[in-house]
Amino acid sequence: MNNNNRAEGILALLIISGIILAAFSPLLANHSFLWDDELNLLQNPRATSPDLNGIIRYWTEPYLNMYIPVVYSAWSLIAMAGQALGLHDGGGPLSPWLFHVVNLFFHLINGLLLYLLLEKLVKNKPAAAIGALLFALHPVQAEAASYITELKTLMAFAFSVGAMNIYYAYKLNPKKNGALPIGAAAGAFLLFVLALLSKPTAVVAPVFIFIINLLVLDWGCKKSIKEAAPWFLVIIPFLIITKSVQPPYSHQFVSSMGERILIYGDAIAHYMAKTAYPAPLGIDYGRTPQNVLNTGWGYFAWIIPAVIAGGLLILGKKARPYLAGALIFIAGFGPVSGLSPFVFQTISTVADRYMYFSMAGVSLIAALIIARQPHAIVKGVAGAVLLALGLLVNLQVRTWDGNENLYIQAIKANPNSAMSYNNLASQYMHGTTQGLMFYHRAFTLKPDHAVAVRNLCSSILSMRNEHPAQNLRFLVRPEDQFKAVSYYNYAVNLARTEDYSQSLLWMGKALALDLFNPKILNNYAVLCWKIKDYKTARTLFELAGELYPESPDIAENILLTLPRPESSDTKAENLIFFNAIKTG
Q: How much is the pTM?
């Protein structure tokens, strides 16, 4: 590289850095832990009181059913640094500001690393810069960059693309004849292992390499497989580790592979839509497998991406690099696409943070277009798009400044977000009339949302104790009570067939309509006990007992459950479950 090229490269890196920092500048004033940050950090004694022993334990055992020691170790080191500097802007032992700064640092590094990779692939610095900025500035990236918990995604991407840069620096260098020295191979291997130890979704990196080799570099199928094979071999032990540390997943939302493919197709269509029009954005899109399959759209969403992919194939060899970008986009969220069920699907199969790796495919397409069409008007349009994205992502990052802003934005994006109504009420309105309304709204939207009904009932108990004269019957409409009985009876029949998950859902629908019915409260509590949700069961038994103190059956259930510890050996079949209510 001559001096001019080196200077141009450094200037490009500086410009990209400045633009990214300006767009994400609100993070430098963010002093909030958000959402599950409390679980991963504030309730984690190894984070609040970090030491070397705690860091070592991350490497010897999983934490919260995840084996990602690199990220947990990084959080411990950040906590140590914050405490050493005396930073306590979060009001506790940890400094959320410092964690946000580290997230921003890694997002910035990822933009620079992607620029270096794209420059190797398209051989055009302005095109590579535009592609990298598209990746970094797109509003869907605000979630991963702003959400402290998602440092795992940022680090996994950084190590993955760092490894790919080493690999292609030698493979595409004519002076090296495509040979990868042992030192470089070891460096790439180490970075890729660190990526897998940051977040298991880094398993998509070998897929990216195979796609690039086959369709962008045109190495042919045999050579592409040979080159990608060592990368795929590396991921095997990490797949085994990930599978072994995760508990058996009891909620299999989709029974057939055909239905899971439909879910994947819907996810592709959703992510394409958010890429093209990134608004409104939120943490809960409500696209659960049930919701997708219960709408006609869920069976046809795959057609749009299939038509686009088919069109690229028809266009032939010239379109192959663009097809590579499209396939990288689709592969990037493959581990959380719904092909294999995962926990967050109870809320939504899709989430902005799952797009982080995928946006590399979009950036590749953009870089290819600019490199092949280097006209001033094309660059002008690209500049205008980047300016708009930069302004939008700056606004989106601001919605991550505090949980209240976060949940309000989530409700704007999805008015049916039960999780957001529940979380907003629990953090800011518990024990208030507005909080009751929000809990009730969450429970009505998702009748098997045990946390929402527990919060709702505990809030009612609190308000009845503090304001016994207050009438809380505004939560129930008399005209809904007959429908509630129908739901209740159906739930009772489902329970007799031992279909407890569906029974809980329908009993929840009944309870949402007739909240102060002690029989419905009792039976919902029994069903919670059957699925081992003892905390919710006890709260509902307590409320049922207050509403119906003369019932010996409810009193018996309370005696069987409330005095016992969480590890109670009380069997669900010993609890009294009310029969169907006669109507007519």
A: 0.91
Q: Is the peptide bond before 280 cis (omega within 30 degrees of 0)?
A: yes
Residue 63, strand partner residues: 66
Domain that includes residue 200, residue range: 3-246+256-398
What pLDDT digit, counting tens, does each position of 116-149 carry?
Answer: 999 999 999 999 999 999 999 999 999 999 999 9
Q: In the 3-class helix/strand/coil scheme, how is 116-129 assigned residue by residue?
A: HHHHHHHCCHHHHH
Instruction: Give per-residue pLDDT as tens, 177-218.
Output: 777 889 999 999 999 999 999 999 999 999 999 999 999 999
pLDDT over 70, % of the chain: 93
Q: Which residue has the tokens 């970094």?
A: 136
Distance CA 522, CA 463 (A): 20
The amino acid present at 557, given as its one-letter code, is: N
- Spatial CA neighbour of 210 closest among 227, 196, 193: 227
214 and 342 assigned to the same domain: yes
Does residue 75 form part of some domain?
yes
From the list 208, 231, 166, the residue with the least C-alpha distance to 324 is 208
pLDDT digits (tens, 9 = 90+) for 429-467: 777 888 888 999 999 999 888 888 889 898 888 887 766
CB within 8 Å of 287: residues ≥ 6 apart: 266, 267, 270, 348, 349, 350
Distance of CA 387 to the CA centre of its chain: 27
CB 188 within 8 A of CB 166: yes
Name, in order, each residue with C-beta under 8 angstroms of 204's C-beta and a sequence gap of 6 or more.
331, 332, 334, 335, 357
Which of 446, 571, 578, 566 minimizes the C-alpha distance to 521? 578
Regarding whether 272 and 151 lie in a shared domain, the answer is: yes
Q: Which of 245, 255, 312 is nearest to 67 (CA)?
A: 245
Residues 346, 458, single domain; the answer is no
pLDDT of residue 584: 40
Q: Which of 542, 501, 489 is nearest to 518 (CA)?
A: 542
Per-residue confidence (pLDDT) for residue 244, from 0 to 100: 83
